[in-house]
Amino acid sequence: QVQLVESGGGLVQAGGSLRLSCAASGRSFSGYRMAWFRQAPGKEREFVVGINWSSGDTLYADFVKGRFVISRDNAKNTVYLQMNSLKPEDTAVYYCATKVVVLGALWRTSYDYWGQGTQVTVSS
Fold it and tell me: Is residue 102 predicted with pLDDT exceeding 90?
């Protein structure tokens, strides 16, 4: 049973930083894609960034390029999201998700497993 557990959310002032963690368990994630999504109040969930566990290939949403960095620790089965230069509009619940990478797999949709989310609040 795949489990994803996010942590690291909290309250931070604009311009500050946070690092989110997603601890994955239940199987080997070689061949999987891990991603971070977020959902702000009253808005649809949106893709933030993804990483292919084996290759390390990444894709970032335009609105976080240059500010957020995704990384992985194979030994710990953990994916991290380093968030810098945070803005009030980054306030949301951040979710970790994963799916198997198949030929042509889209980055932004059709994830099979999700974590429970962690709240990030950026004050102005």
Answer: no
